Amino acid sequence: MKLGIIGSGNIVHDFLTTAGQIDNLELAAISTTKRSEQIGHDLAKQYGIKQVYTDNTRLVNDPNVDTVYVAVPNSLHYEVVKQAIEADKNVICEKPYTETTTEAKELKQIADEHDVIIVEAITNIHLENYKVIKKLIPKIAPIHIISLNYTQYSSRYDNFLVGKIAPVFDPAKGGGTLTDLNIYNIHLAVGLFGKPSHVQYYPVMQRGIDTSGILNLTYPDKQAVLIASKDSYTTPRSFIEGEKGSIYFDGSTGVLDSFTVELRKGETKRVKLNQYDHRMASEFNDFVTIIDNHDTETANQLYDHSIAVMDVLTAAKASVQ
Fold it and tell me: Which residues contact 148 (CB under 8 A, 6 or more apart)?
């Protein structure tokens, strides 16, 4: 994979720290805003990125780029992804895919017309621990209660309180806790249990944005409570509770560093199987394999999952009174 990166925010810096763990990855180019041009040059020097642009059009038309990683504010995903796929580039788009399910479906149609692959960058469903949890669910089933918590006091929250608004707290840029943190919980819930029958979101609103919130998902035989917060501090713990036992873990639902299986009539065991220390390494290794092999079957499965998540996200936004 010859990767071109659009964006130079925190997620790009974080990704680049693990790029060396991703097999068959070449960092071909990066595009920033003119204001962030020096950041682009600094990252290129530090990580061996071959070309720096301040114009996305030049990057998506670079013949040395075959895949574009879109890591810009959520409100820009649709237009940047569309430009890349219309230039016949594969796309890895940061979560959430787009702001609406309709936009996501349109982008997939265009991608199919251009015979390129589009995938959503979401860490947890590519982690080895997640895959093992999915296999273990039948051992504790039937499941009746799910509580997923991603609380992380934001480094930008103090500035937000005094009116300095970063994109993650800007409603005009698709910010908010639902799309920034609770999206990880949604991916886990949908990946493990499918789409719910009913969705209701209860946000804590400040300055017109949800700084924290509780998302309730109703299934025919279970209830899920998805908690996310950028304005509170705790070490979060998540639970999947069934009649035969439970699975629980501490920390970010985007990292899933380890988990514990506790059987009602059996042993309690802690499991720690993630292959890489960095949460983004597994997903990007998967993406390289999918794109280099033009594996449309796996890409389509991931797309179907992402659309189910988008449906939940859309319903959650619509449920707010």
Answer: 185, 188, 189, 224, 225, 226, 227, 238, 253
Q: Answer whether residue 288 is part of any domain.
A: no
User: Is residue 309 one of the residues assigned to a domain?
Assistant: no
User: How many other C-beta atoms lie within 10 A of the C-beta of residue 27?
Assistant: 22
Helix, strand or coil, per DSSP, at residue 284? helix
Cα dihedral 86, 175, 15, 227, rounded to 10, equals: -130
Instruction: Give me the CATH number covering residue 206.
Output: 3.30.360.10
* Sign of the alpha-carbon dihedral angle for 61, 280, 173, 186: positive
Q: Which domain holds residue 202?
A: 125-279
Number of alpha carbons in the 13 Å side-chain half-sphere of residue 204: 11
pTM to 2 decimal places? 0.95
Q: How far apart are CA 264 and CA 140, in angstroms?
A: 8
Q: Are residues 257 and 187 located together in one domain of the fold? A: yes
CA distance 47 to 49: 6
H-assigned helices in the chain: 10-18, 37-47, 56-60, 77-86, 101-113, 128-140, 157-161, 177, 183-193, 281-292, 296-319
Contacts of 110 (CB under 8 A, 6+ apart): 82, 85, 86
Look up residue 132 and give its two tokens: 């093992």
Res 99: pLDDT: 87
What confidence category does residue 321 fall into, taking pLDDT thresholds of 50, 70 and 90?
A: confident
Q: Do 70 and 6 meet the contact criterion of CB atoms below 8 Å apart?
A: yes
